Amino acid sequence: MPDASALLTDLYELSMLEAYAARGMTGSAVFELFFRRLPPERGFLLAAGLDQAVTFLEGMRFDAEDLAWLRDTGRFAPGFIDSLAGFRFTGDVDAVPEGTAVFADEPVLRVTAPLPEAQFVETRLLNIVHFQTVIASKAARMVLASGGRQLVDFGLRRAHGGEAGLFAARAAWLAGFDATATVLAGRRFGIPLMGTMAHAFVEAHDGETEAFLDFARTRPAGLCLLIDTYDTERGAARVAALAPRLAAEGIAIAAVRLDSGDLAYHARAVRGILDAAGCGAIRIFASGGLDEARIARLAGAPIDGFGIGTALTTASDAPALDCAYKLQAYAGRPRRKRSEGKATWPGAKQVWRRLAADGTILGDTVGLHDEPPTGTALLRPVMRAGRRVDPATADLAAARQRAAAALASLPPALRRLEPGTVPVTISPAIRALAAAADRAAAGEP
Fold first, then answer.
1. Structural domain includes residue 1
2. Nearest to 158 by CA among 29, 256, 287, 285
3. Domain range spanning residue 108?
4. What residues contact residue 405 under an 8 Å CB cut-off, 6+ apart?
5. What are the angstrom distances between the C-alpha of 315 and each of 32, 318, 414?
6. Do 355 and 373 form a contact (C-beta atoms < 8 A)?
7. pTM for the complete prediction?
8. Residue finishing a domain among 287, 313, 339
9. Quick check: 4 and 88 in contact, CB under 8 A?
10. Per-residue model confidence as pLDDT tens digits over 320-359
11. Taking the mean position of all CA atoms in its chain, how far away is CA 353?
12. How many CB atoms lie within 10 A of CB 190?
């Protein structure tokens, strides 16, 4: 699925690759991908994108055209470019399974590989994991706000590119959405497809009733009619009048869609019109500028499902997270960054999760990977020697089930989307390792 070309990266990755090669710096390195801090709008994140990340690592190549283009740039030594023909990822990956709730300072993915390989994959790994985690985390909030009502991804047209739209559909489904309108996502990921009709279809007909009849007779399965092109309540009355006529033809109207105005007001009015006509089985589906806050405010309205577009695929309130991929060890020694506001904890790490008796998350501890466990380990082996070792990483249905369990395990305040988060403790062993790394960097014993 992800573009396999190794040129889908930042220039500095290639520059460092050449410098590492020139200096013979090929020792084993540990890099970790994590989120430094959560924005105020997020009390938790939902990890996503691991399957595509592993697929990228397995398939990453410089093909003949890539190498020819690099030669033409004149930026790199010919011998270095020749060496890229056989460049592959041969390392190990441990990661938190997709659909797991994660918090600040916790490694979501750990790469152990020769330094050039571990460094070079930084850009694309961040690109894949960051984006899908952003969207899955936004979608999860909508799932919590919906109270079990149907959610459908309508966001492809507002996504920042085709791949973003596909990844958003996948991440939303993982987080608990019920369907997508993105057809290729149905083919690629097996996500159920759902769509309705456009206002243009109604406008193209001489009358609204004619438009409803034409669409119903052409697309009778799961029929949903858009009723607010001209006047919402009048549209509902026309649907109520058509229902017996279509029923005689064996066509059931499954739902009507509202896409504008005061959705709560119109939903109540439409519900009354349909019920009075004996059409209580017709559901009401709403769309139009919705996000989790508006969904929550519509809790008392007779709306059975929501189509979500822009707010989902752009994660409009928090479109970017403070995500990093940093060196934690090289050549057997701990390494750490000490930049102001961006300091890292050294060493290969594990995350241990503690749960209450009812399954609610109590807190997490970030410790060294070989410390005695203090809970359930979250990072699991995913790749060894450059190959996927856990086929379950490709199981989107299992990730979706895991996400549902993760949302159920959140503390009640987070399930209500209230401010706060889960406490994350850095182990004493990591703090001691950081102090030792600082002394070594200063030339002290």
1. no
2. 287
3. 11-135+322-441
4. 99
5. 24, 6, 18
6. no
7. 0.96
8. 313
9. no
10. 999 999 999 999 999 999 999 899 999 999 999 999 999 9
11. 22
12. 10
